[in-house]
Amino acid sequence: MKKSNKIILIVIIAVLALALLGFVMLFLSGNQITIARCIVTENGSLYMVYDERPVHISAGDEKDYQTGDKLLIIHASAFAESYPEQARTIFVMKIGSGTKDDIPQKALDVLTETGNSVSGEMPKNTSLEFWITEDVKDYNWTGHDEIYGWMGAREFLGSGYKKTQDEDGSDQHPEHYVSYVITAWPDYADDGQFVTDITVTDPAVKVHGLTITSTFEEFDSVFESLGYELSWAEGAIKTRVATKDGITFRLTRAVEDNPDIVPQIRISAEVTNREGIIF
Q: What is the pTM of this model?
């Protein structure tokens, strides 16, 4: 064997030995490999399903995963004693696709119990067609009136609601309606079409059991139980606000000192703009 070939062989063996040593040290340090299905919540958090329970992990690019995907995860064997549990994550790789149907109901129940709704999953006592952060890239919007005039977004009315036009021909919402604003998410520079804003002025529509006629006290009761931070919106319009992990609910009611205000429930998801896109 030529000297140059011997050197190459020695280098390859050394690299493999170092890789093997690193691999062994990784697991001697209290880490392990797990192949598991994942859950993505409406705020973009990622969980692996470990023994039918959700364990929070961090992949750094959670937007690349969907609930039900099969992942290979290298993580710390010991979990943080929180509820749900958390695992220090070293490496995550998607090795298969799936759907919510692949997730044990027990794991979903734990997340629901702690106020962590699965991304795009409709909560109980809600009569909307789509939910906040729901992926609608494959949905055919035929039959839904579109409200034109947006830049970097599209707005559609729910089924059965018809838009009107003013004297200038500009699109207007009807008195009672539900509308869905579609954008990229979680950042405007990302691909995809997600529901990132929902407005409800129809008193027959429920959101978490609430309607536009619900009181602020009822609003507080629902969202306090789900772990949301409550506040009042600034400005002349009296609006109660509930915020948690980038998702915000607002209830605006007509009040005695401003009876012309249109009551509404609005739901919005935070969308970042890392590239400073100007619309």
A: 0.69
